[in-house]
Amino acid sequence: MRTQAGSREDDVDGFRPSVTSETRGRGKWIRGKFQKFWGSPRGQVGVPGPAETDGHQSPEDEEPPVVSLAFEQHIEEQHLCEASQLLIDKEKHLFGNITEEEDLIPHNAEVEKLAADHEALGKLVTETVVESLSFSLQEVDNNSPSVSAHVAALTSAVKTIIQEEEQDQMWKTRCRPVPSWRPCNWRKIHDTTLHVLVGGRMDSPQTPTAILAEQSSIQTDVQNMGRQLKEDLLLVVKLVKSCYPPEMDICNFYAKLYHQVFSTRLRKIADFGLDDKDCTFLLRWVNEYYPRIFQNPELASEINVESLGKLLPQELLVPLEKQYLDKQEAELKTYIERVLDDAAQKWRKGEEPKTEDDCYVSPVAYDIIQLINGMVKAAEVILGDLHKAQEITRPISDSMQRYKVFQEDIIRQNKPNSTAFIKANLGCIKDFRDVLVNKSHLFQEEVRRSCLDVVTNMKQSAHTYLLSPVHKNLKTQYQKLGTKDWLNKNAFDKLLLSIEKELQELRGPNQSCYQELIGQFHQEVTEEYVRRLLKGDVKLKDKDRQQKAYETVIDNAESLHNLFKKMGSQDDWLKEILTKIAEVLELQDIPAMQMQVAALGAAQPDLSEKHVSALLKLKTNLSKTDRSTVKATLSDTLTEIKAEAITRPFFSKIAVK
Question: pLDDT tens digit string along 421-444?
Fold first, then answer.
């Protein structure tokens, strides 16, 4: 099971890194250790060995070597670099002039003593490195005396490692016998020690969080590891970094170690098989919580996050992402179905939609859009990819088709409350269209286009349902358009009065939807006007009757425009169509007629030669040749403009013979 990092007994290439509660009080430890090494109190240094020697003066009779006195003092004062230098100097003295292996024999005792000192120094350097993460951030921020002492000791330990590495390199270039401790590879030992240290701290976080009822054990473990990682990296940046030279890049070294350990732990968890809750939690850690740790200003300035990469490899992320997306898609589909079922149930019961400011409203679009927006935004964060998050919206195509079927049922059955529901639906349709157009990033393009087609069809269907009875009521007045009555008396006024009355019956959608409905009504009345005119029931045999027709159409266009504008229509272009038609009726000069027809064709590219022919036939004094000349102008005009320029179809909705 997990063990505390500070209590590990693992040997690391001959060194045993351990940090206990006594480590900071290193004085006692040092005195005990080095009394053992020298066999006497400070100042009475001896070398452990047999009582009898091979003719040399016994250790008790020798003068204490200066190096041992200085070495012990440096150790006690944690001047590790200076202690190392003394050992290196002694090493050079003992081994510098050796040419044959036999020459080592007279110096065996000194070599053994030097080896023991070197080993003791190595352990002390390792323990100093390990102790780096034993402080709290509060101690570091308060710059406690123990922190200051450790900074000095760690700085000296790091210099020692570098110094010993240089000595290793020096021995590689010499052919003479090499000391048994060379190469000592203290840099490698340092790196391995930190790896063990990091693993231990991630296995046994120093300040584990309390297990919450709503959290699984997996979530608690991952959260604890994440907190430990953040706190330790902050400790590295605030304390450890200053003790290392820049070229060792210690902050990024630690970050890579923690990243590797964290990644390994998460891989094991991901391989285990997770429920939906833990799956989502793990994805959030990979794509949201973990990157957020490195957004901390103190870490962001020191650690190259991009070089760390993802916490989990793609082969493990893909099944997790699929599991998450499948769950989210199913939830979205279920929720939309519930919203639509609720609306359908109210309609079947004969209820009417609620009203706000005398307008019918439905919660269908608002509820669904809010959910889509929230789910896609959350998924983008959890998955770290908007394109993947858009996959959640795949069920919407089928759901919108179902919504369309629901509206068709309302229209087909035409219950007493159907009109109110359709008026409320217009608001939903507009809201859906707005989000599909203005927030297209929420949807896959195929889904967005499919849904746009559905809502466009639903809007037209709703307008037709609401306007068909109106046009039916106006049929009698429509029949008088384009006849002698239309020219001889003001029959158009009756039509205007009837239109104004019918407009009141169309109230009920919200303001913007009502304006669109009125705009549609405005266009359809104008289309009916032109359709009746082009039918050819009235013959304009001379200039006077053509002038009279011109004045009538101009007056009708103005009156129609004013009425619909008052009711909210913003379609001024419809008045321009009638104005141009009137001018064609008035003009007697063929070139002038050509210019006017060309202008009408440029404004409405769906104008055909049949429409122009029907208009010109009203002027019975025009020859067939003149009509052909004018129609040819339209053909030339339409050739110069592209078919896709038709943005507001008008004439294409008017059939002529």
Answer: 999 999 999 999 999 999 999 999
Using CA atoms in the order 627, 631, 633, 634, what is the torsion angle rounded to 10 degrees? 150
3-state secondary structure 259-309: HHHHHHHHHHHHHHCCCHHHHHHHHHHHHHHHHHHCCCHHHHCCCCCCCCC
Residue-wise DSSP of 117-131 = HHHHHHHHHHHHHHG
Distances (CA, A) of 355 to 359, 434, 459, 510, 567: 5, 22, 20, 10, 20
DSSP letter for 361, please: E
Question: Pick from 387, 406, 489, 528: which is nearest to 447 by CA?
Answer: 387
Q: Answer whether 582's CB lies under 8 Å from 595's CB.
A: no
Cβ neighbours for 224, distance < 8 A, ≥ 6 positions apart? 205, 208, 209
Residue 608 has pLDDT above 70, yes or no: yes
Q: Which amino acid is at 31?
A: R
Tell me the C-alpha distance between 458 and 455, whole Å. 5
pLDDT in tens, 248-267: 999 999 999 999 999 999 99
Q: Provide the CB-side half-sphere exposure for 307 (13 A, CA).
A: 11
CB atoms within 10 A of CB 297: 7
Q: How far apart are CA 632 and CA 636, in angstroms?
A: 6
- The region, left, alpha or beta by phi > 0 then psi within -120 to 50, assigned to residue 50 is beta
With CA atoms as reference, report the closest residue to 280 among 200, 219, 203, 211.
219
* pLDDT bucket at 420, cuts 50 / 70 / 90: very high
Q: Cβ(641)–Cβ(605) under 8 Å?
A: yes
Q: Distance between CA atoms of 617 and 44, rounded to whole angstroms?
A: 132
Pick the closest to residue 614 from 622, 477, 550 (CA basis).
622
Q: Taking a C-beta distance cutoff of 8 angstroms, is the pair 245, 158 a contact? A: yes
Sign of the alpha-carbon torsion through 24, 26, 27, 32? positive
Length of the chain: 657
Give the integer Cα–Cα distance in Å for 127 and 139. Answer: 19
How far is it, in rounded angstroms, from Cα 390 to Cα 378? 11
User: In sequence order, what are the residues at sequence separation of 6 or more whose Cβ sits closer than 8 angstroms to the Cβ of residue 169?
Assistant: none
Helices 590-603 and 609-617, axial angle in degrees (round to 10): 140
Q: How far is CA 134 from CA 279, 296, 550, in A?
A: 33, 22, 97
Of 551, 605, 560, give the one whose Cα is nearest residue 581.
Answer: 551
Q: Which residue, 188, 192, 187, 301, is CA-closest to 245?
A: 187
- Residue 568, classified by CB atoms within 10 Å of its CB into exposed (0-12), middle (13-18) or buried (19+), is middle
With cut-offs at 50, 70 and 90, classify the pLDDT of residue 100: low
Token pair listed for 222:
């991952």
Tell me 355's DSSP state: E
pLDDT, position 99: 54
Asked whether 499 and 491 are in contact (CB, 8 A), the reply is no
Longest Cα separation, the chain: 150
The CA dihedral of 185, 186, 188, 194, to the nearest 10 degrees, is: 160
